[in-house]
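Ops channel
N.P.: pipeline sanity check, posting one input/output pair.
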């Protein structure tokens, strides 16, 4: 049983990073997956291969730390959100879903006078509702929990400063 009200204050960074991270991850995944399903996109094969390359070959912990240090994201809440917001595995699942939507739905919307953006927001996005609720339980999110120790070190929680005191996370 949670007795102290101070516990909620200490849970706030986790709640903010999970909530905003999930929303940002879903938006970025859609923005990457949807164009890669269009045959008229020039360089579609190149971008697919580039995404797959980044999934199989990562730079490692030290270059990851140096990049976040150069972007001045250390000791901020953004270091917990931004590096983990786009998963290529989720993008592949989302892209496969977009491939499964028949072109006849889009064509029918165009005949009725909808633009490409209108068809996307009024046909494709409502069809995504099963993925909206399923995405937090996808197996790839286990990778985010395995990065927990590295993210804590980068965020400065394990630094010699003594935890929250001296950190710039929310202040």
């Amino acid at each position: 049983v949670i007795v102290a009200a101070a516990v909620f204050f200490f849970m706030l960074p986790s709640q903010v990073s999970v909530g905003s991270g999930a929303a940002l991850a879903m938006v970025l995944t859609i923005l990457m997956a949807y164009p890669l399903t269009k045959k008229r996109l020039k360089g579609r094969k190149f971008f697919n291969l580039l995404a797959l390359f980044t999934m199989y070959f990562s730079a490692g912990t030290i270059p990851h730390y140096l990049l976040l240090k150069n972007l001045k994201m250390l000791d901020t809440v953004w270091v917990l959100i931004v590096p983990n917001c786009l998963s290529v595995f989720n993008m592949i699942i989302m892209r496969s879903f977009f491939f499964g939507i028949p072109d006849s739905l889009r064509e029918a919307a165009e005949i009725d006078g909808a633009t490409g953006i209108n068809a996307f927001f009024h046909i494709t996005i409502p069809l995504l509702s099963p993925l909206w609720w399923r995405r937090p339980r996808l197996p790839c999110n286990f990778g985010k929990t395995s990065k927990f120790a590295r993210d804590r070190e980068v965020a400065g929680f394990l630094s010699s400063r003594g935890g929250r005191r001296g950190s710039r996370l929310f202040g």
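N.P.: looks fine end to end. The CA atoms of residues 5 and 37 lie 48 Å apart.
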